[in-house]
């Protein structure tokens, strides 16, 4: 049992974006007389949450009473409504599809039968893009201004949920200002070690020339992984055989459009993929690749060839993808990169980190500061399951028909993890369903990527073939098949309007 009812000090190791966000969360959870101290260690580098934004970013901000309008101004934030995948299907420069952050107001997802969406399956059967059924997609396609997007979202008719791109350094500075205003203590020092008591709990942090007594610790030390890696030696679960990229270069680009695109662009390359995050005055970008097929110089040359101009790399990074199987040990919880890492595809690391943080706060609050061992075990189990879901969703993105480079040919022939291999076999026969995602969720955790996310990627890459969608539709009742046919007639222009069927499941 972990009893924090008499806790006097909470220590946060690492003062980057993750550390300050954790401090603000725990400042909200604990009583005002409990010190929350952030140990800012300048030498720690965390290729952390990136700047691409996630679907659960807004909930994280609102839960911690961080005003969205102030956040937008302070963090240089721009709307993010989804992801654009460019060149992933092997069809050349014009080959693209979208995974949008879908919300209420899309008729195609308001009718559900036996766990699937017949109208989406009809579009897949007809070879129609899924993203074009989202009412707000037109604004994305025409590069609408931020003001236009704001007005569109305010109508409640866009079928879209908002998130944001943001400047990570500016976001961190904003969080620090808020944290200090709420009484959080900032302490600049290197963390040299941790002292454990006889029960294996962290009792003090060894700083430069002093010791800081603590009752609870959040390890947000990034790649240094001072807690799980150095002190506790927790077992590491590698994704190296599943997710093939292990290097990255980062760089900035000049925006080519007056209005920032409200989507993150991900472009498939010869040895991996490139990201572009549009902010107000720049585009933050990078190329994630496999060292088996390219080195730093080759990667830079490929980027410059594609963009048609020179780039100045900012960082060359080595990526070790995987996670620690136990993230909460006694009175220490590792958060973000300190607990695991995946490539910045689909802002998966940010999505997972925000869900970790929500559950830390939920467990401490709902338990009144008293946490039984089996609750900690449940947190660790759910965390591991969530990481597995991230792995499998990211692996889905590489299940495309590209064969124009050794990287893509080799990954197509690589062995799949058992759980994902079974899912892919199911997707060859039907569309993804909620029951497919449930095994990745447990103990109060929420799904990081929803059924529509899986459908958007799997159908666009052909993992769900048209014949599978047609087979799914054949299992509908005669009345439902007539409704589907009416919808297809509408798509083909042979009907002037489509009346909603009775019995739609909302």
UniProtKB/TrEMBL annotation:
Gene3D superfamilies: FAD/NAD(P)-binding domain (3.50.50.60). PANTHER family: FAD-BINDING PROTEIN, FLAVIN-DEPENDENT TRYPTOPHAN HALOGENASE. It comes from Sinorhizobium garamanticum. Keywords: Plasmid. This is Tryptophan 7-halogenase.
